[in-house]
Design a protein that fits this description.
Layout: H1 7-11, H2 13-17, H3 51-58, H4 64-73, H5 95-114, H6 121-134, H7 143-150, H8 156-176, H9 180-205, H10 208-216, H11 218-230, H12 235-250, E1 255-260, E2 264-268, E3 271-275, E4 278-283, H13 286-304
Antiparallel strand pairs: 1-4, 2-3
Amino acid sequence: MLKNLVYSIALIGGIAFISSCSGNSSKGNSGDDFSVSDSALKQNEPLQLSEEIIGNVIQNISSPVEMASLIKKSGVDFSQKILNKPEKVKDYNTSFKRALNLGVYSADLGYINTFDKNTIVVSYLLSVKELSEGIKVGQFFDFAALKKMATNSSNLDSLMEVSVSSFNKMDSYLREQKRSNVSSLIVTGAWIEGLYISSQVIEETNNEDLINRIGEQKDIIDILLIIMNNYSADPNFAEMVTRMEQIKQAYQGVKITTEFGEPKRIERNGTLIIVQDEISHVEIAPESLTKIIKEIKSLRDFIIS
């Protein structure tokens, strides 16, 4: 079932730990900034999604922290080797790669925090710091305070609160500046990294809950493709679209059915609201799962290269 999570939670892996370009390397892009902004979309074609709609659909993208929690419940041990290496941050010298990998390191930090590995938190936090400053949003994070809180597990609740606030401010700023293309890349990077980490655990454990969660992401592919296509006048985004289409093809064998339960009445802030209970059933054959994991790894390798 798709989770209606706010944008900051999709990224909270990042700092609360909470939870590409064409060619083979980001060095092929000569400029530090994107070649197009939100306003420079496909010429001669209507805008497919408004900024408000983009924000709404992003809210339906599952949090990497949710994936990390399922991984921990599977009983598998923590593995740092499946994460992106902090020292690779220096290789990301374009805004496109920085935004994508800000999402990647965010998901990595969500995984790290879920397993309470405070000894390596700071190195990943520094990677997030460098990337956020590289895309001119570092002003929204008090990294000195976050670093101090990160080394003390008793401060994790405060760390969560500060980080959510920071990411909300960053997201609002990006949209006000008509840079929702940057927001979409951060979310995509976090989402792919969450799937990649989960897929590595699946290969080791064949955990049914994780397999089902991977299968449920079939609908998300369509959402992200629509967003990426909005910016495909930029060759970097066009390359992402091509590669994500390959994941979509791998998902063709997945069948999702939704069962609607009885509506529930819940009191929230003094108001009675009706919540529709939904249960998703995923059918995914082993051969389809193998294809999906292969394509997820391929895109992830492309993003972090």
